[in-house]
């Protein structure tokens, strides 16, 4: 759900359509498209070219020809591969940063006076009747 590229790509594609059709595209329209693209990117379906269909009302609102989306759909396959690679890479980096192990607890002998170290993290106990591998006694059958 972390779509890093959507808002940037939509703003640049709106500028391209404006240039192709000779439509005046000033700073106010760029700001509207950038803000709306950022907001709309959270509701994009996870299908190829799904975001381009969401842009149709946005193009009409800022005075761009909606027909320009057909041109973007024709050329979107190649940039879409790079956008997907960037989004997946961004998701993996986010998981790696958030999923890294915690810093080890401070040993009591190194802790400052009045500091109580956190208790060690224990494995969760599951619902009754389910034995996790660390809870199984290897000496007798489960």
Oligomer: single chain
Shape field: elongated
What gap, in angstroms, lies between the N and C termini? Answer: 41 Å
Sheet with most strands: none
Key phrases:
elongated; 5 helices; mainly alpha
Descriptive overview:
It is a single chain. By secondary structure, the protein is mainly alpha-helical. Helices cover 51% and strands 0% of the residues. The protein has a domain at 6-98. It is elongated, with a radius of gyration of 26 Å. The two termini are 41 Å apart.
Mind sketching the topology for me?
Elements: H1 6-21, H2 27-40, H3 50-62, H4 68-75, H5 77-98
Helix pairs in contact: 1-2, 1-4, 2-3
Summarize the structure.
The chain has 142 residues and is mostly helical. Helix content is 51%, strand content 0%.
